[in-house]
Fold DUF4169 family protein.
Amino acid sequence: MNDKTETGQKSRKEAIEAQAKLRRERAAEKLRENLSRRKRQVRARRSGQADETNGLPAAKMDES
């Protein structure tokens, strides 16, 4: 193969790997946020406080 093709393939592969790494990092951050939120909910329930949420926003009925 010629050098341009190999270099192009390497840079494309590196770009794909970088995107995959960013996706994994974002997913890990979301998982940490979710875990933290769930832990706060459990602690609130244990201490007898009400949940911060009040049902699902999409399930609320319009009270007009």
Notes: The CA atoms of residues 2 and 8 lie 10 Å apart. The helical segments are 3-46. The mean pLDDT is 81. The two ends are 71 Å apart (CA to CA).
